[in-house]
Every structure is written in C-alpha cells, then in structure tokens.
Amino acid sequence: MKSLTNLDVFPIPVQRFLMDDTYDGGQMTDISATRLIDSPRISRLRSEYSHEVVEDAKRRIAAALGTAFHNLMEEYSPDEWVVEERFYATVNEKIISGQVDALAPVEPKEAKKIFGKDVENPVVIQDWKVITGFKAKMGMEDYEKQGNIYAYLVRKNGYTPVSFVIWALIKDWKEADATRDPNYPQLPIMKYEYKLWEEEKIENYIKERVDLHFSDAMPECSEDEMWVSKVKWEAKKKGHTRPTKLFDEERDAFSWIADQDHRATKGTTHEDWEITQRPSSRRRCEGNWCNVADFCDQYKKWKEQNDS
Questions:
Q1: Is the predicted pLDDT of residue 24 greater than 70, yes or no?
Q2: What φ, ψ does residue 16 adopt, rounded to 5°?
Q3: CA dist list (Å): 27 to 23, 30, 67
Q4: Buried-most residue among 179, 194, 255, 288 (CB within 10 A)?
C-alpha cells in the first residue's frame, strides 16, 4: 500500500478505513484489466518506486465512497448473481485478470433471440461506479475498453456476455440541474450500456496492451494517459478577472465578438476584449494524479521545456 499523508485531518473511523487497503489484484496474475488499460509507464514507475510513492489521504475519499456503493450493491444483489468474482485468461504467455462486480443471468430464451442460437451461460456484465455529474454529462465512452476486457475474460471462463452495463452513482447529483438540463443525469443512479466488440477485436487490443506493458523499452505516456488539455483561446473583457468564453481557434473568438449575438458582446468592439492563448496542460502529471510524476523523466523534460 502507498503511504498516505494528512490522515489526521479526518475522523478516526475514516483514517482506519483508508489505511485498510484490501485490494487484491489476484494471485498469480501478471497484470489486471485496470492496469492493462492504463499507462505502462505509470505502472512500471509505481512498481519501481513503490516504497517512495505517497498520496494525500483526501484523494482516497472518492475511492471510499466507491467502496461503500460497492458494498451496498453486493449485499443486496440477488442470490443467483455472480458477484465480485475474479476471472483469468492467458494472453501472450501473460496471465491477465479482472474482478467483475456482477454477472446477472439472462434467460436462455431471451439470449437465443439476441444471438439466434442457444448459448452457454448468458449474462449481463455489471460494473458499479461513483462519478460526478460533469463526468456523466461529458460522456462515459472511456469505459468501453474495460467492459470489453471483462467480456473477453468471462467468455474464456464459460459465460456468454450479452452486454456490459455500468450503474453509476452521481455523487453530486442535483434535482434542479436534472429538471433544467435534459443532458444532465436525470436520476442519482444512472444506467449506461455498451456494445461488445467482436472477440477478435478485443483479443488483438489485449495483445497490443500486453506487449506494451511487458516490452523492454519504457513507453512514453500518450496524451490521453496524461489527460492533456487542448490549446484554447479565451475571450476576456478588459477589466474582468475571468474569461467569458473559450474557443478552439483565435479567429473564432474575434468572430464571436463581431457577431454581437452574446449579451456580453453587445455594443463592444475587439478593443474592449483581451484574446489570449491558454496553453495546453498535462493535468494528470501537473497534479501528480499518477502519484509518480516526481520520478518521471518524460514529465521532467516537458516541464523543463515549458519553464524555459
């Protein structure tokens, strides 16, 4: 378990919970599904500097809420569900595993309608998450790969996945926002369903990820893995401290002012505004959300280039 700092700001029961790290990646596992999807560089640095990695305890509170939601769902799941079971498969001579929150059985007749034939042990793969309303509104597509790895694993263990479903608890859900905005989650617990890939497609993806994680070279993190934000242009009215609007291109900002369609631009000219570039950032690195930014030469080189 990584060392936690600032534990003493929380009540003793919370401290004890955060220190009780019971996560099990699976015995005799070379790599878990969640690690497989994530950056190989981060995974290796965490392993190499495991005794030096520290994390602020406040960043574990969200995980604690997730555990509480999992406990609720597990305790009240129907008896016929397969709950919190870890599945294994061998790919490129490496054992991968994934702990599936639940497999909900599907009636054989219903599965036959879907597949056009009888299938073995049809199930819906369920995953339980705790997320923000912003995350739900902006999209949940990034969970598709995780669900398809689980589908691959359960296929290799005698089940036929029908679909992958996420039940997401929106931890900051507001009824007023749901009433006002149809794109906002309409319930405090939302269902998101994903299409499953062809078995060949997901197997090829898993093989590629295994090769990356176990190659001799240290791969660099991709933009997605570093949570890179795109360069933006901000339009800020002179004398104001915060920008009114962000744009992908500088010309879009000038066009927005010229169009005079927004209440803030009415009666103004370009001279009343400051159009400045907001540089790209690497949020995961800069906030040390990976917990190994201090040991990463890729981040060090980028920081030196941007600080010069």
A1: no
A2: -65, -35
A3: 12, 9, 21
A4: 194
> Is residue 4 within 8 Å of residue 18, measured between CB atoms?
yes
300 residue type, one letter: K
Q: For residue 305, give the 3-state DSSP assignment.
A: helix
Judged against a pLDDT cut of 80, whether residue 21 lies above it is answered with: no
pTM over 0.70: yes
For 238, the 3-state DSSP assignment is coil
Answer whether residue 22 shows pLDDT above 80.
no
Residue 10's pLDDT band, with cuts at 50, 70 and 90, is: very high
Residue 72: how many other CB atoms lie within 10 Å? 12
> If 0-12 CB within 10 Å is exposed, 13-18 middle and 19+ buried, where does residue 294 land?
middle
Q: Residue type at 8?
A: D
Residue 103: how many other CB atoms lie within 10 Å: 23
The residue type at 204: N
CA angle 292, 95, 160 (to 5 degrees): 115
Q: 218 vs 307, which has greater pLDDT? A: 218
Read off the pLDDT band of 25 (50, 70, 90): low
Is the pLDDT reported for residue 124 higher than 60?
A: yes
Torsion 33-126-119-157 (CA) sign: positive
The token duo for 55 is 């994390």
Look at residue 174 in the predicted model and tell me its pLDDT: 95
87 vs 48: CA distance, rounded Å: 27
Q: Per residue, what are the HEC states of 103-130?
A: EEECCHHHHHHHHCCCCCCEEEEEEEEE
How many alpha carbons fall within 13 Å on the CB side of residue 109? 0
Q: How many CA atoms lie within 13 A of 30 on its CB side?
A: 15
Residue 255 has which token pair? 């066009």
Cα–Cα distance for residue pair 252/162, rounded to 1 Å: 45
H or E element at residue 35: helix 33-37
